[in-house]
What does this fold into?
Amino acid sequence: MAEIHSTAIVRGDVTLADDVTVGPSCVLDGSLGPVTIGAGTTLIGNVYLQGPITIGIGNTFYPFTCMGFAPQDFGFDPARAGCGTTVGDHNVFRESCVIHRATTDEGPTTIGNHVYLMNHTHAGHDCRIGDYVTMAGNAMLGGHVTVGERVTIGGNTAIHQFCRLGRGSMLSGGVSTTGDVPPFFLVSGFNFVGGPNLVGMRRQKFPSDSIEDVRWAYKVIYRRRLPPFAAVEVLRERADRPIVAEYIEFIETSKRGLCLGHGLEKRPQVHADPHAAAVEAR
It folds into this structure.
């Protein structure tokens, strides 16, 4: 039988595996839709889950995690259950992580397997997060964001609604993107792809020929400053290479357009000395 603390509240349609642990002051609300939690999952305390939500095995929820609530969408009726939220296996949700349920009928907000979401991370409604994704503290995903497997998102980083982050990509801390980030590339500034994520690929033990394909694809897409349709035509020279074919498919299916790699305006300099600023203006 599941271990449920005396201060926890369990109401409505809630199904718990026999070895689930529900800590103090947790709330499992199955009044709007079913709450189902798989084996080996632990809710440490002060966790609030609202159905419909399905959670797999071996997950750990730290205090003040809130999951399955109505999306932050003015047009959504919070009394509507919708498709809810689905969580895979062996994930860790640290303190104050917030994930909202879906707004559309196309499927639930989805978290994959072996995902690590650190403190105060947020995934908006209808997000799709793949396996082995890491989000550092205060990272945020707008609604409808798709995150490929093994993506790393730095702290205080924001992803615009409807963006896609290709598998193996990495976003440095304190940056943002309003465009799609191709696979295995590194976002090192605001809307700026600074190069391929070579360190990540080496850590994942990619063969040298795959790493070379990513280097070449980066040069074609960003260094040559080609429009996307022209870059795709050049990429077709190596379309028989699986990773290059992945870039072609990614670009052709992009709706937001790609995150930039060049042409950014130089930020204005801030002078402590007003006289220096006046001289520069002249």
